[in-house]
Amino acid sequence: MEEREFPVKLKLGFFLGLTFFFFNSIQKVEASIHDYRNEKFIPQSNAFFFHGGSEGLYASKVSDHSSSSSEKSSKGRFESVTFTRTKESAEKQNEWQQYTSTVEAIIVEVKDRERIGGTYLKTDAICCNQTLASEGHCKIGEVIMQPNPEKREWPKRIKVFFEGKNDKALMDFQSVDINSTGMYYLYFMYCDPTLKGTTISGRTLWKNPDGYLPGKMTPLMKFYGFMSLAYLLLGLAWLLRFVQFWKDIIQLHYHITAVIALGMLEMALWYFDYSNLNATGVRPMGVTLWAVTFTAVKKTLSRLLLLVVSMGYGVVKPTLGAITSKVMFFGGIYFLGSEALELYEHLGNINDFIGKTKLVLVLPVVFMDTCFILWIFSSLSNTLEKLQLRRSLAKLELYRKFTNSLAIFVVLSIAWIGYELYFNATDPLGELWRIAWIIPAFWALLAYSLLVVICILWAPSRNPTRYAYLEESGDDLDEEGVSLTSSGVKVAADMASMIERKERKVSGSTDHVFVGVREELEEDKRE
């Protein structure tokens, strides 16, 4: 017994420790930030570069209200960006020389990416060499760049210089205005081979005209507001039905109510979280923590609701019996895994550096979702078989509708996963960032739609016996009376005729006995 429990406790301890780690590694989150912590440059052709991040940005807006005009600017800001070269590289320089080496920060719109490097000159070089410099195409020691004829100042180049033998170069605190909507990439590059081993630290911050939310997340704020209203309307409709038939409420209805309430709170918290981040640039950590937790709880309870409904809880069986502990344990593990993933996605800085950590957290959740789907359909198959054997036709029809609906949702989920993979594969540079919000939005809509289907199928009514569990004999009789009225009348008539025939037989035999006794008495008197 102890040997079996040890792996279970070990897994539970791992997920608890992982969740605790993320709670303790929470940092203050401000807008769309790209953090650099002593990152190294990568050699490419005859240059060294570091990808500083990418961001979808809307163009700055200028509004004119009668006599006064105001501008909502879109910009990128460099904060405490520092380059550190090796001691050996610094010692080789002339201390009397003002500028000894250069690092360039280059901001380019993704559609102009071919203007960086010597592609347009039919060369693989990224940095200008003696030949290209002599032809007048560029300056030696700088990154080759072809200006955009429509916007001569773009791509944007910002130079940072090392002075004398200093091993650090600090980039001035400055911002870059964005006047054209698009996906922008930031690169840090240097051409001097003596700078090999240089690292970068600091951060960049990006802001859109309407606030601090990243461009691809801005539509989600309105979407969460819409979903909050949708859950509110569903909750009101369910509450009216709940109050109207409160005497016929079964345990399953309370579970559905809890999922609706959690969904309403989840969407409202996310809307408030996004709204506050967009307005102030600072995420309200308490609200974000609650939103993340409510999301994990709702996802877990939604899956458990589907599972227990598929098992026939409250319909075929009054309780789950011995399997209750397994269901609860699996739900607890799923909650911890989902909570850890949500914490990683929403409580770290908002940037595009995913890394391997997210993959480690995503895989267990995907595996458990797959287990949930297999378990749900296996349970549905068993429940349908039991209802067919019991000839509970009303309940059988209800579960067939539920199975068909669930199958449609699973097919839609698989199709959307395929589309999501296709979307990411065909858009590696993020050029479709303005429609990327529909991917998470679809999953929220799908979960809401499935909840609506369950609310319709299991809505409170005056006749809860069509899906409520009763004792086996009473349950069958009730369903026959509800679903097969005409057959019931025929059965009752047949039973009445059988009883009448039996009564006739009994009365006939009784009369025969009495006649025989009377004849015997008369014979005795004669004698």
From TrEMBL:
<dbReference type="GO" id="GO:0016020">
    <property type="term" value="C:membrane"/>
</dbReference>
<keyword id="KW-0732">Signal</keyword>
<feature type="transmembrane region" description="Helical">
    <location>
        <begin position="252"/>
        <end position="272"/>
    </location>
</feature>
<keyword id="KW-1133">Transmembrane helix</keyword>
<dbReference type="InterPro" id="IPR009637">
    <property type="entry name" value="GPR107/GPR108-like"/>
</dbReference>
<feature type="domain" description="GOST seven transmembrane">
    <location>
        <begin position="219"/>
        <end position="464"/>
    </location>
</feature>
<dbReference type="InterPro" id="IPR053937">
    <property type="entry name" value="GOST_TM"/>
</dbReference>
<dbReference type="Pfam" id="PF06814">
    <property type="entry name" value="GOST_TM"/>
</dbReference>
<feature type="transmembrane region" description="Helical">
    <location>
        <begin position="304"/>
        <end position="337"/>
    </location>
</feature>
<feature type="transmembrane region" description="Helical">
    <location>
        <begin position="398"/>
        <end position="417"/>
    </location>
</feature>
<keyword id="KW-0472">Membrane</keyword>
<keyword id="KW-0812">Transmembrane</keyword>
<protein>
    <recommendedName>
        <fullName>GOST seven transmembrane domain-containing protein</fullName>
    </recommendedName>
</protein>
<feature type="transmembrane region" description="Helical">
    <location>
        <begin position="437"/>
        <end position="459"/>
    </location>
</feature>
<feature type="transmembrane region" description="Helical">
    <location>
        <begin position="223"/>
        <end position="240"/>
    </location>
</feature>
<feature type="transmembrane region" description="Helical">
    <location>
        <begin position="357"/>
        <end position="377"/>
    </location>
</feature>
<dbReference type="GO" id="GO:0005794">
    <property type="term" value="C:Golgi apparatus"/>
</dbReference>
